[in-house]
What we know:
This protein is mostly helical.
Amino acid sequence: MQYTQEYMALMKQEAPHMMDHLRYLEVLSEESNRGAVLVTASMLDDVLTKLLFARLVEGKSSAKLLNGFNAPLGTFSAKVAAARAIGLISEEWRRELDLLRAIRNEFAHSVTATLGDESILNKCNELSLCLPEKATDAEGARTRYWMSATAILMNSLNALHEGTVVRIIPIGCQPAC
Length: 177
C-alpha cells in the first residue's frame, strides 16, 4: 500500500499523530503473515508504552518501570496488565490484547506457526474488535488480527493526541510537581 505524497502531506498537517500508523500500514502490506503478526504486536507494545508514560508520573522512576533490561513493565504482558490495573484500558481491551499477544507468541516461539494453524485460527476467532464473520483460513485470520489491532492502535493514538490520558499527580504535589 503506497500513499501519494499529497495524501501524506495532508495527513501530516491534519493528523500528525497518525503518521506512524500510516507507515505501519505501508510496512504491513509488504509483510508475510508471520511478519504482519510480529510487526503489529510491536506497534501495540509501543502504543501501550506511550499510554503508560502518558499516565504515570513524569520522571526517571516511570522510565525505569518501562525501559531497559529487566524493567518491571518491560514486557508486552506486563504492560497490558498494568494498563488494565490503572484504568487505561477496559477489560475487553485487556482480553483482546492478551489474545493478540498469545498469537504473537505462537509465531515468536515456533518457526512452523501459520495463521492457518487450528490453535491460531481459534484465537483469531475469539477476537471481538473486528467483523463478526469467523475466519476459516489464514487470510481471514490475518484480517481479524489486523482489524482488532488497528481498532486498539487508532483509539489509543487518538486518546494520546487528544490528551484524554490523564497523568497521575503524586499526593502532596501541585500539578507542576
